[in-house]
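Chapter summary example.
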Amino acid sequence: MKAGDVINGYTILEDFRVVGAGLSKWTFAAKDGREYFIKEFLSPTYPDEHAPGSAQTKMRKRQRCAAFERHHRRIQDALAAVSGLGGNLIVTLDFFRWGAKYYKVTERVEVAGLLPADVTALPFQDQLVLLKTVAHSLRILHDRGIVHGDLKPSNVLIKRTELGYTTKLIDFDSAYLAGEPPPPGEIVGTMNYYSPELVGYIQETGTAAHQLTQKADIFALGLIYAEYLTGALPAFDAGSHQYAGVAARTGEILRLPPTTLPTSVVELVDRMLLAAPGARPTIAEVHTTLMGIRTAATTTAVVTS
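The structure predicted for these 305 residues follows.
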């Protein structure tokens, strides 16, 4: 597919580009006078009667496609009632198969292009707005029993507004209902932000499916907050562990470095990064705590541990 082609009524505006680890491609498309973001999944592909392979092989591929469709439509249906154009949850507006490939359509968002390092340079009040808005979006998910499953900075779009900045939460391809994750071999995400329990589940070393709840997102969000506020992930023994979730799983305590941030914020993020899921705050607690912080000037204290 290339610019000018039409897919299911969507006119492709630019050639597709590969995204992430090469598992999908994306571009912008137009339909009925509105522009959208459209993603093409490179896997699975639906085998028609002319596709190569035996009848048994094609049956297995079709079964996998059926499961893929069920998953995406289940999450799409679960979120349909809580989001719309212009909201902070950028959910799937259309999901379909065109030939052998699957496509997902979402609202197009004009982003400010801020990286975590750019957020670190913003005034605290602007940072606080970003922390609050992403917490609010995640709260909508968690209240409905949905785990995002792949929280990372690139899935939190930062948009400039007349009053400053806000966030848009995107990419629910890895989302699942709490306690019902996909099989370990089918989980695709960014390991840098995996929670300790998600690490254990993928490695099949002691975490059962029912233990993967909304608290896995809280750990990932704590890592994002750390990057926003300090410019880096919390320190851990990189010589022994490559990822924060692995380090926490083996007993390392992840904390923000010494900072002049409000004590309540530091304590909140430190709790979000605890290894035990039950010890972490819920997203409701996170959001409520952040909403209670009004100004940095009246609450700031130097935290040294």
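To summarize the output: The chain has a mean pLDDT of 90.
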